[in-house]
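In response to the reviewer comment on reproducibility (Comment 2.3), we provide here a single inverse folding case reported in full, input and output, so that an independent group could reproduce the run without further information from us. The structure tokens appear first.
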């Protein structure tokens, strides 16, 4: 199986997750890493059975490159909040680009920057999305194994609360602190609530969750829901960017 790992606008943190499981992956003789600039000096861009893409699309060059990768790949998997939702850099999508350019980066050549920083799925078809900032490396092994075995990739339908309750944690909301667990996709093992911290939504919003219900709870308790959501790496996620627009208006 020919694998490519590609970087777009991002911090590289999700690519680093590969190093946690690379040894495991390479035990299988079926896997050849053909393209991975961060990990090897000899790379070949040809066709790929699966391409893992980290980062958001922020420049014209990236827009062209993601289309080339899509055309060359049987499966395309977005990894991490930047690729799935636009990342922290997509917070600028809610602000005026010209103002930002002039006031923040007027000394940098930004001619190739697009006015928005968008998730990969805004440009090309994505077969599977791995949530998190950074991702859980073991999900990578599961995806590669599923493709080798020709098993369908299952989509996560549960909120963090399901993993949290399975661990027997006392609910942070009940204890009196904000938690975005009810509207956030699971997969992290309820990491933050297990250490008595509220979830801040790094795995991104879960489609169909009760956004309005949680908003009401935050309001009743005097917590700033808008700030919690708008300051997230996932604020431009397709599943709730409209909600964020409403919050800002
Ligand atoms: S999702 Fe987070 S860890 Fe991954 S590349 Fe983006 S900022 Fe870095
Ligand atoms: S602590 Fe958060 S994640 Fe856990 S059950 Fe309560 S709301 Fe859900
Ligand atoms: S509990 Fe929430 S913020 Fe913490 S790692 Fe999981 S998804 Fe991310």
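Designed residues, in position order:
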């Amino acid at each position: 199986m020919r694998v490519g790992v590609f970087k777009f606008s991002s911090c590289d943190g999700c690519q680093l997750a590969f190093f946690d499981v690379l040894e495991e992956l390479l035990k299988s003789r079926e896997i050849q890493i053909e393209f991975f600039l961060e990990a090897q000096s000899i790379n070949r861009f040809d066709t790929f059975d699966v391409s893992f893409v980290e980062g958001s699309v922020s420049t014209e060059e990236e827009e062209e490159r993601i289309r080339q990768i899509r055309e060359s790949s049987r499966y395309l998997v977005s990894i991490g909040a930047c690729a799935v939702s636009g990342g922290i850099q997509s917070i600028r999508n809610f602000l005026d680009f010209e103002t930002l350019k002039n006031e923040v980066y007027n000394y940098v050549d930004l001619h190739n920057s697009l006015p928005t920083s968008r998730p990969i799925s805004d440009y090309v078809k994505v077969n599977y999305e791995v949530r998190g900032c950074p991702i859980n490396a073991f999900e990578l092994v599961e995806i590669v194994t599923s493709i080798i075995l020709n098993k369908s990739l299952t989509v996560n339908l549960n909120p963090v609360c399901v993993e949290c309750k399975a661990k027997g944690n006392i609910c942070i909301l009940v204890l009196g602190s904000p938690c975005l667990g009810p509207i956030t996709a699971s997969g992290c093992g309820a990491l933050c609530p297990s250490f008595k911290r509220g979830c801040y939504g790094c795995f991104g919003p879960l489609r169909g969750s009760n956004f309005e219900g949680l908003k009401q709870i935050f309001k009743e308790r005097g917590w700033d829901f808008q700030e919690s959501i708008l300051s997230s790496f996932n604020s431009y996620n397709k599943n709730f960017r409209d909600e964020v627009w409403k919050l800002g208006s």
